[in-house]
Amino acid sequence: MLDTVRWAWKVKIHSKLDIDLKMRLREQAEQEAINVFSQNLSDLLLAAPAGNKATMGLDPGIRTGVKVAVVDATGKLLETATIYPHQPLNQWDQSIETLYQLAKKHHVELISIGNGTASRETDKLVADLFKRYPELNIAKLITSEAGASVYSASELAAKEFPDLDVSLRGAVSIARRLQDPLAELVKIEPKAIGVGQYQHDVNQVQLARSLDATVEDCVNKVGVDVNTASAALLSHIAGLNLGLAENIIAYRNEHGVFSNRQQLKKVKRLGPKAFEQAAGFLRIRNGDNPLDASAVHPEAYEVVNKIAQRNNKNVQDLIGQSAFIQQLNPHDYVDDNFGLPTIKDILSELDKPGRDPRPEFVTASFKEGVDSIDDLYEGMQLEGVVSNVTNFGAFVDIGVHQDGLVHISQLADRFVKDPRDVVKAGDVVKVKVQEVDVQRKRISLTMKSHKLKKQRSKPQSKQQTMHSVMADAFKRAR
Predict the structure, then answer these.
(1) What pTM does this model have?
(2) Cis status of the peptide bond prior to 49, with omega within 30 of 0
(3) What domains appear along the chain, each with residue ranges and CATH number?
């Protein structure tokens, strides 16, 4: 009997338990990796938009030149060009003149520079442009170009810009994603944005399902202007798909802009159920009804009318009147059709109509003279943008083509269990260089406040650096 027990444990039970436990651990790890990707994607999609401003997008390159695209305040492409300020042509002055003429012609307010190869060199070019023509009064920003090349070669880009060269479509995307990251990034396959961890090792079906749900949640949280939104953006609205989104745009092109939400019912194949799901997330600015620009669903308009009548006011007079709305008692308007939570949501929306959940637009200022990893030294303080957050820390773009890692132990002066409690993708942070490994292209950073107080004005000499390395090695050995 003992021999039978030993045999059963060794051959059957132990192996079964071993496989089951490892499978369970792998599934948990996969789910955690998918959650990390989804949360980072959400942070990126809900990043602050620069707003409706004429923008010039620069897709940096060295040998192939810098691709230039100018879009108007609504994202419409106005003009493109290619300049060659870097090697081997070195057309620096001609490139500055080209940028000046484009900026002056189209009244450009923002310049969006992709953070790829030659981004800092191109940043210097734009800085030189501002020095020569200070009257331009333009702001420049370094923008993540992750996924821009994927969009350029996509079927959606080909349909949107059939006569535009593939290399120039990326510059258009870089310009637009500064104006409104959500509207532009939804055109790109989420997995191509690259803000996750171990994304190629997890279940791809579950990953795709989770990312699609995240995109839909972000789009619905912000809402879209039905008169300006693209088919890619509209397709993520609850109740709609790509076919219905294209039908909405076809109706808009044929009959002009929508003046009220009820016109959506005339769109081909958009039935009552789809309208019921989607209407509250579709905004119509300057339409027939001021409530069409808010998140109040058409079915709840009667509640707003009731509130206005009881207080002898027009609906327009209610919108945005915070002091008056806060005096109202939600219980007074509860009936058989609308409960207390719905009334509270309606009053909250009337208080801040069409409020955007995204934060205020801020940018990072990369340090002048720091263009590559060779320019970094221990103790240097920099400003950067969080490009990715993982369970073991956060990666920060400091403008040297190689993101630095702030380990979870260096994120704050206190114990940090989850890095997302401290930072999220898109945050502007101040960091200090802890260690630079040029050969392996690894940069260690810290965000601890007591380590940000002191900073060396100059890097140590090679001899001093060697002494420091030996001293550190001796301490570790002890």
Answers:
(1) 0.77
(2) no
(3) 55-179 (3.30.420.140), 224-283 (1.10.150.310), 296-351 (1.10.150.310), 373-477 (2.40.50.140)
